[in-house]
Design goal:
Blueprint: E1 7-8, H1 18-26, H2 46-63, E2 69-75, H3 79-89, E3 94-99, H4 102-111, E4 116-122, E5 146-149, E6 151-152, E7 157-158, E8 170-173, E9 190-194, E10 204-210, H5 228-233, H6 243-258, H7 261-282, E11 287-288, E12 299-303, H8 307-319, E13 322-323, E14 334-337, H9 344-361
Parallel strand pairs: 1-13, 3-4, 3-5, 5-8, 8-9
Antiparallel strand pairs: 2-10, 6-7, 9-10, 11-12, 12-14
Bound molecules: pyridoxal-5'-phosphate.
The site of pyridoxal-5'-phosphate has 12 residues, from loops.
């Protein structure tokens, strides 16, 4: 590891690709002859316009985003979308949500402020350790959309296939799996992702929305910033955008293209997660908490027999140079977040450490 960096398994903000950080460092004092750093630049300048245009185009290339979808860069993280989605998409005031963990729960409680929310399936009965069957959901005809969290960052569950929405619009929170595998955008009405998990610095969300869902007849009390139309009509620059995050994300998009795009990234992610899951399946001391079919490629929660031992292992990993492995309090135990930018070496080193720990203490 260069620069004294360590393997950082944080769930977010999370590790970034080193070549991207190096490029940002090299451009810090003088961005390509502009004489200034990107964080000092007017967002109305030509040079910045090129940065945001390229970021959008590279994302479109990576995900094959159809022309009838808008790409928006909005502030307020993923959390603001919990409110923006119902404010903008609830025409009839009715929406269906699938409850699969902490993040879908938060989205549900926010949406309830704006309309009639039907929780059409839930995995609460076994502490969100699986995805409920969503082949035949009870969706009212007038439902405006069906909402899912496609990768639950805290509980470590992901959807092996999308729900049957029976013709209704699908809305997905992809925050902790964004760009981790190929995605067929036209299966969705709206996809969003807070970028600090798998892409860039915190404080921004990418929204990919089908054009016909952008409305000009919202309640006039909806704040101007919270209407998708504001952002769509102004190229994500109605006000000063998160220029720095857009720049960094743009770098990551280019980096992903350079290593072969999302197919290649997906292969690497499968390969990496397998190292961790194979270990968990063979270990006597450590156990994964999620049903196999629904295991996340990005967030891997696991436990020992007791909270005391969990805490000892977390302390030992930290001592050995692996950081942020403490599990979220609602699941306990440990959690290894192995996003796109985590190298396979990092996962192998962690598994070697845990094997050794088990051999010595098991
Ligand atoms: C982190 C996270 C959020 C919240 O993101 P913020 O940018 O902190 O608002 C929402 N959904 C999922 C799935 C997340 O992982």
């Amino acid at each position: 590891m260069k620069y004294g960096r360590i393997y950082n398994f944080s769930a977010g903000p999370a590790t970034m690709p080193e070549p991207v950080l190096e490029e940002i460092r090299d451009e810090m004092m003088n961005y390509r002859g502009s004489g200034m750093c990107v964080m000092e630049m007017s967002h109305r300048s030509k040079v910045y316009q090129q940065i945001i245009d390229e970021a959008e185009q590279d994302l479109r290339d990576l995900m094959n985003i159809p022309d009838n979808y808008k790409v928006l860069f909005i502030q307020g993280g993923a959390t603001l979308q919990f409110a923006m989605i119902p404010m903008n998409l609830m025409k009839n005031g009715v929406a269906c949500y699938v409850e699969t963990g902490a993040w879908s729960k938060k989205a549900i409680s926010e949406a309830k402020k704006y309309g009639d929310v039907h929780v059409v399936a839930s995995s609460k009965d076994r502490n969100y350790s699986y995805i409920p069957n969503c082949d035949d959901l009870d969706i009212p005809d007038n439902a405006d959309y069906v909402y899912i969290c496609e990768n639950e960052t805290i509980h470590g569950v992901t959807w092996p296939k999308l729900p049957n929405t029976k013709g209704h619009i699908l809305v997905s929170d992809q925050s902790s799996m964004f760009l981790s595998k190929p995605c067929n955008v036209s299966d969705y009405g709206l996809i969003y992702a807070g970028v600090q998990k798998n892409v860039g610095p915190a404080g921004m969300v990418v929204v990919i929305i089908r054009e016909d869902l952008i409305r000009d007849d919202l309640d006039p009390k909806v704040p101007i910033y919270m209407s998708y139309k504001t952002h769509a009509d102004n190229g994500s620059m109605y006000n000063t955008p998160n220029c720095w995050a857009i720049y960094c994300c743009g770098k990551v998009f280019k980096y992903l293209k350079s290593i072969g795009g999302l197919e290649a990234m997906y292969k690497m992610n499968l390969d990496k997660a397998k190292v961790m899951y194979d270990f968990l399946d063979s270990s006597k001391m450590f156990k994964g908490t999620v049903d196999k079919e629904f295991r996340s490629l990005m967030n891997i929660p696991f436990v020992t027999e007791s909270a005391e031992l969990d805490a000892k292992v977390v302390a030992a990993t930290k001592e050995a140079g692996f950081d942020n492995l403490k599990g979220h309090k609602s699941v306990g135990g440990l959690r290894a977040s192995v996003y796109n930018a985590m190298p396979k070496d990092g996962v192998e080193a962690l598994v070697a450490f845990l094997k050794d720990y088990e051999a010595k203490n098991g």
